Amino acid sequence: MTEAPGEILEKSAGRRAREWITMRTMLAMFCHARHGSPRGGLCPRCAALRDYAALRLTRCKFGEDKPTCARCPVHCYKPDHRSLMREIMRWAGPRMMWRHPVMALVHLLDGRRDPPVRPKPETPAG
Ligand code: SF4
């Protein structure tokens, strides 16, 4: 049986796994406060965004050298997912400093790294 992207990220280490845990935490805080979901649970829209984000992270073209998604020169998210994720980050970002200060600090440090050069589009072989 193939693993879901979120399960793959849970078992890994490095930038993508760190971002996954941070994103999941912020999403849970936001959904609980804004959508009334029980602690540890997500409404269907936020659950869909979480699964989508896990898929994007596992397929990220920068691999473990990725910038934070907020500073990415590519932005691989679809516009509606990107817009909801921005709203979540804006809401949860300041609250992370109080509730999860270490995670917030590490995320801030990750975000200070220079974004990698935008990869060139692949040219057809031959
Ligand atoms: S937005 Fe950028 S950094 Fe984030 S997963 Fe997509 S390509 Fe990778």
Low-confidence stretches: none
N→C terminal distance: 37 Å
Query: Fraction of residues in helices?
Result: 55-70%
- Overall morphology: globular
The secondary-structure element order is HHHHH
Question: Summarize this, please?
Answer:
The protein has 126 residues and is mainly alpha-helical. 60% of the residues lie in helices and 0% in strands. The chain has one domain.
Please give a structural write-up.
This protein has one domain (5-112). 60% of the residues lie in helices and 0% in strands. Helix 1 (5-11) crosses helix 3, helix 2 packs antiparallel against helix 3 and helix 2 (15-35) packs across helix 5 (101-112). The mean pLDDT is 87. The chain has five helices and no strands. It is mainly alpha-helical. The structure holds iron/sulfur cluster. The site of iron/sulfur cluster (SF4) has 13 residues, from helix 3.
How does the SSE layout of this entry go?
Elements: H1 5-11, H2 15-35, H3 44-58, H4 79-99, H5 101-112
Helix pairs in contact: 1-2, 1-3, 2-3, 2-4, 2-5, 4-5
The structure holds iron/sulfur cluster (SF4).
The site of iron/sulfur cluster (SF4) has 13 residues, from helix 3.
Features:
5 helices, single chain, globular, mainly alpha, 126 residues, binds iron/sulfur cluster, 60% helix
